[in-house]
Amino acid sequence: MSDTDASLRTLAHPVRRRILELVWDTERASSEVAQGCGITKPAASQQLKALLNADLVTVRMRGTKRLYRARLDRLAELRELLESFWGERLGTLDAAVDRAPSPGTGTPAEQ
Q1: What is the 3-class SS of the chain, one letter each residue?
Q2: Beta 57-62 vs 65-70: how paired, if at all?
């Protein structure tokens, strides 16, 4: 699995995305992350480890505390990759969604 694949898989988890929001523009200790996500400290540590392994956060020691912060450069790389993937395909996707029936309404021809 490539680094990009690992990073995208890591981002698929909603708690990890919430953690990234919390550490986006400020350093936070794992206890703050746990509280901000409504999870236990061990669960926060596990999710932070996954983010570290995917190179999506940095960690800095301050005394006995580990402070985590989002790696905005790495997240920007992933955004660029996704934007290049979608590119002009978004217009095609939007058109397909517009043509698709709403759930329970049948096919477009039946409307």
Answers
A1: CCHHHHHHHHHCCHHHHHHHHHCCCCCEEHHHHHHHHCCCHHHHHHHHHHHHHCCCEEEEEECCEEEEEECHHHHHHHHHHHHHHHCCHHHHHHHHHHHCCCCCCCCHHHC
A2: antiparallel
Cβ distance 84 to 76 under 8 Å?
A: no
- Per the CB < 8 A criterion, the answer to whether 51 and 20 are in contact is yes
Count of beta carbons in the 10 Å neighbourhood of residue 44: 25
The fold of 3-98 is Arc Repressor Mutant, subunit A (1.10.10)
User: pTM surpassing 0.85?
Assistant: no
Average pLDDT of every residue of the chain: 88
Per the DSSP assignment, residues forming a β-bridge with 28 are 68
Q: How many CB atoms lie within 10 A of CB 71?
A: 19
